[in-house]
């Protein structure tokens, strides 16, 4: 879970802090460090013109951004807690056992 908190610096200015960091490596790859977990980040272009971000503004919507790319996150290691949780999902186990029987 990505968590945010607000604190004040020495001058009294509000600073937002998070337990998440995105690292861009020298080879161009990226990873998300979230607490003790590490995720590989995959970047891919989005097709079409239906990828907009809107916010509610009064009784209407206001456009804020158009997304051109998407990010996908995958656990970096099979030893991660996230991988263990997803690997033992009951529905995933059922799918795996069916495909192994074929």
TrEMBL record:
It comes from the Eukaryota. Transmembrane segments: none annotated. One of its GO terms (biological process) is transcription elongation by RNA polymerase II. GO terms for cellular component: Cdc73/Paf1 complex. GO terms for molecular function: RNA polymerase II C-terminal domain phosphoserine binding. Pfam families: Leo1. Belongs to the LEO1 family. This is RNA polymerase-associated protein LEO1. It comes from Micrurus spixii (Amazon coral snake).
């Amino acid at each position: 879970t990505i968590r945010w908190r607000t604190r004040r610096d020495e001058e009294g200015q509000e600073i937002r802090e998070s337990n998440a960091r995105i690292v861009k490596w020298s080879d161009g790859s990226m990873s998300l460090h979230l607490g003790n977990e590490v995720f590989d980040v995959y970047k891919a272009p989005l097709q079409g013109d239906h990828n907009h971000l809107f916010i509610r503004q009064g009784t209407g919507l206001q456009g804020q951004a158009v997304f051109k790319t998407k990010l996908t996150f995958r656990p970096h290691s099979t030893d991660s807690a996230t991988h263990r949780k997803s690997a033992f999902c009951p529905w995933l186990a059922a799918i795996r056992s069916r495909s192994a029987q074929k």
